[in-house]
Amino acid sequence: MVSSTEYGSHTWELSLTVDHQHEGVGKVQVLHISGDLHVGGLMLKLVEKIEIAQDWSDYAFWWEQKKCWLLKTHWTLDKYGVQADAKLIFTAQHKMLRLRLPNMKTVRLKVSFSSMVFRAVSDICKMLNIRRSEELSLLKQSEGTLKKKKKKDKNSKEPATEDILNLSNSPVGSGLPGNAGLYSKTMTPVYDPVSGSPASSTITWFSDGSSTEQNCNILALSHSTCSPEMLAEMYQPRTLADKAKLNAGWLDSSRSLMEQGVVEEDLLLLRFKYYTFFDLNPKYDAVRINQIYEQARWAILLEEIDCTEEEMLIFAALQAQYHVSKLSLSSETQDSICESEVDEVEAALSNLEVTLEGGNKSNILEDITDIPKLADNLKLVRPKKLALKAIKTYWFVFRDTSISYFKNKESAQGEPVEKLNLKGCEVVPDVNVAAKKFGIKLLIPVADGMNEVYLRCDNEDQYARWMAACVLASKGKTMADSSYQHEVQKILSFLQMKNWTMSSQAASEPENVDMKPECFVSPRYTKKFKSKQLTARILEAHQNVSQMSLVEAKLRFIQAWQSLPEFGLSYYIVRFKGSKKDDVLGVSYNRLIRIDMATGDPITTWRFANMKQWNVNWEIRQVAIEFDQNVSIAFTCLSADCKIIHEYIGGYIFLSTRSKDHNETLDEELFHKLTGGQE
């Protein structure tokens, strides 16, 4: 027994667990301490008692019951509220974690389990040479997306060790010993803008020779294609409810991994969460471009995003181009880069970048008084009941952000038949180049839902000009905006890829080509066509992209992905206040869309540009948003925690504040203000 005179009545026993691997030393230690002892002093007492000679600088206390770290070492135990029944574990803050990248490769590396996820992802991206870490986050696969795989692979084991890129000797985070992995603080890695492979001068910066070059290639270059069997084993969403399961497991960026139940050697997915790819540059972003390309490729193959047969063949052709180009590159050495090819890549980049409202630099063209307008004969298609459609030609005039149509050109000086305000509307392409069909579907918000209007254009050029104007008008921009011509060229480029012509050689000898067409299209089209038919059709589409370099093929693939109507939408099942049924909420980079769960039709769209404020009632887990013109909505999230949607909205608003003028600094404090919330 210890006498009270020796320790005083204000001391008490605290049982501490030490996470170490030394045999012969007990893991549970009991210390006599007082509440006015600060956490740093407790660490010192513990280390002195266990007498193990090792570096303890990465260790901190984890409070098991309260699921929190005691990182403020100057705080006293009383201030933290630590009492004798507290279970404190003295453990390393950096632990091993397995991450599955968008290209389905798994890397194993040491990550901070005590930093907020936002900071941890930043450190991971430095390690992997991925710029703009704010666009990515960590995703825990939900049970719903694992069920199918578990049934099929009940007796399967974890991937073999050789399938995992082990970066365990390259710890991320500040103040840790060891090499910097694939990242250098003083130099920016440079990649060949045509092939995407690391420049020879860059390789010498890395830690060791061949193995590091191999690691770079695994991350920056696409290697293996998938098989139908591999696709069959993976989760494929069939409905909007299935797609909502894909987004349920995003980790909270304002809390640490440990606080969210992640343990050492867990497997998480590293994914692009925000679909705003800022400042892409092939010289520095080979890894980033490749991982975006891979995320897009798998989303299309697994039918996470819908596309037409024509579009699927474009995606297949671009993948086939990458496959063919890589084979030719493997037998040749590229010592010099053709300037024209680099120019093509840069031209593709100028069309590729996605910007948010408010994220553009001020444009002097917006200040001119003579706003450009379009005027042309178009066909108006109005859906009627019993599947009948009324099609009639009118004289259309597009000015500012509105479309007016008249009976004919001569009556254009009078009152229009109808004037449509496109601000905040949904614009959906309805195109089949082979059938010479160039349609624009407009879903215009009205008081009781969405008003559907279809416009039919006569040719590609007319379609590109009107479609670009509609897209800008939906964002509240006019044709005077500098992005109008870029939008027109982007649409024409996409149409050109669809407008392929078949070469006689490709058509007659598809069996001579080393290609497995099932690797390039989703299972739906594998079932629809025979293998030879698919090969012939892919080669037919491939004729139009056969001259592209490796990087340009990937950039065009990303561009085509961005052109799909559903691009960038993350789905959640919600219940709106006052509603008796569940709906789907689509969250995009610039808007929220309420979607009918049964039909998949959009009901209402709300633009972030019109949003005044949003908040969360944490007691009832309800998100409330106020927009201009006294519009307000409120909903509870049923398929995920409401914090995820709250973070999505704040995250997209945060990303809209980025500028190339200060692109190397990131206001982490602002991110947490916009996304953190107060529970």
Automatic annotation (TrEMBL):
Region feature Disordered, mapped onto this chain: 147-169
Known InterPro entries for this protein? Band_41_domain, FERM/acyl-CoA-bd_prot_sf, FERM_2, FERM_central, FERM_CS, Kindlin/fermitin, Kindlin_2_N, PH-like_dom_sf
Alphabetized, the UniProt keywords read:
Cell adhesion
Q: Does the keyword Oxidoreductase apply?
A: no
Instruction: Output the CDD domains linked to this UniProt entry.
Output: FERM_B-lobe (cd14473), FERM_C_fermitin (cd13205), PH_fermitin (cd01237)
Task: List the PROSITE patterns hit by this protein, alphabetically.
Answer: FERM_1 (PS00660), PH_DOMAIN (PS50003)
**Cellular component GO terms held in the UniProt record:** focal adhesion
Which GO BP annotation is one of this protein's?
A: cell-matrix adhesion
Q: Does the keyword Secreted apply?
A: no
Molecular function per GO:
integrin binding
Q: Which residues form the signal peptide?
A: none
Q: Which Gene3D superfamilies match?
A: 1.20.80.10, Phosphatidylinositol 3-kinase Catalytic Subunit, Chain A, domain 1, Pleckstrin-homology domain (PH domain)/Phosphotyrosine-binding domain (PTB)
Q: Which family does it belong to?
A: Belongs to the kindlin family.
Query: What is the recorded name of this protein?
Result: FERM1 protein
Q: Which organism is it from?
A: Rhabdornis inornatus
Q: What is the lineage of its organism?
A: Eukaryota, Metazoa, Chordata, Craniata, Vertebrata
